């Protein structure tokens, strides 16, 4: 037992003595420069600034197609890339410049088509995925949809004689 204590003590003493070197002496200046450049580049991000984030079509008749455009500007200091844009339902379809770099200061456009389905107050969202700090932007369209007026339509099933 005494031998084991002496051996463990010697190992612990050796371990503590070998750590006496200063860690700051092991730092390479080139690695520090590369890390500083990488950190500085990470601060350069695009910023997507929209002219508006919501569009109201007002009162429309059911199944009447509608379209609007959301104009945005890259107000950041790096190229903006939109990777995806999805709508909250199939009745809304966004058209956007997918994977096309938009330089700082340049503008782009996202067209949103809505088929006019639904009834009463309808609100739909479009989620735009991009390489911004937030990673996504939300656009909203809304309309009050009146039922289609068709006086010749019969109510209920029609019986043939």
What does this structure look like?
This protein is of the alpha+beta class and 161 residues long. The protein has helices spanning 2-18, 29-43; strands spanning 48-50, 54-61, 66-74, 82-87, 92-95, 107-114, 120-130, 136-146. The strands form two sheets. Strands 1-3-6-5 form a four-stranded antiparallel sheet, with no helix packed on it. A four-stranded mixed sheet has the order 2-8-7-4, with no helix packed on it. A hairpin with a 5-residue loop joins strand 7 (120-130) and strand 8 (136-146). The chain is elongated and about 100 Å long.
Produce the secondary structure layout.
Blueprint: H1 2-18, H2 29-43, E1 48-50, E2 54-61, E3 66-74, E4 82-87, E5 92-95, E6 107-114, E7 120-130, E8 136-146
Characteristic key phrases:
161 residues; alpha+beta; 4-stranded antiparallel beta sheet; 4-stranded mixed beta sheet; 2 helices; 20% helix; disordered C terminus
Provide a quick synopsis of the model.
The protein has helices at 2-18, 29-43; strands at 48-50, 54-61, 66-74, 82-87, 92-95, 107-114, 120-130, 136-146. By secondary structure, it is an alpha+beta fold.
Shape: elongated
- Helix run count: 2
Order of strands across the main sheet: 1-3-6-5
Give start-end ranges of low-pLDDT stretches.
156-161
Number of strands: 8
Query: What oligomerization state is this entry in?
Result: single chain
Sheet having the most strands = 4 strands, antiparallel
Whole-angstrom Rg: 31 Å
Helix content class = 10-25%
Proportion of β residues?
Answer: 35-45%
Distance between the termini: 109 Å
* Average of the residue pLDDT scores: 84
Helix-strand pattern, N to C? HHEEEEEEEE
Output the structural class: alpha+beta
């Amino acid at each position: 037992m005494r031998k084991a204590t002496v051996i463990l003590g010697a190992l612990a003493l050796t371990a503590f003595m070998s750590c006496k070197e200063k860690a700051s002496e092991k730092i390479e200046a080139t690695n520090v420069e590369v890390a500083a450049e990488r950190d500085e580049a990470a601060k350069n991000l695009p910023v997507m600034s929209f002219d508006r984030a919501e569009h109201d079509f007002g009162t429309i008749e059911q199944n009447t197609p509608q379209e609007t455009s959301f104009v945005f500007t890259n107000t950041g200091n790096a190229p903006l890339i939109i990777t995806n844009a999805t709508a909250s339902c199939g009745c809304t379809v966004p058209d956007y410049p997918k994977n096309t770099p938009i330089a700082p200061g340049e503008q782009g456009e996202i067209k949103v088509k809505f088929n006019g389905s639904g009834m009463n107050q309808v609100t739909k969202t479009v989620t735009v995925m991009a390489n911004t700090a937030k990673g996504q932007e939300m656009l909203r369209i809304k309309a009050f949809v009146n039922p289609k007026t068709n006086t010749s339509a019969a109510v209920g099933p029609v019986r043939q004689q």
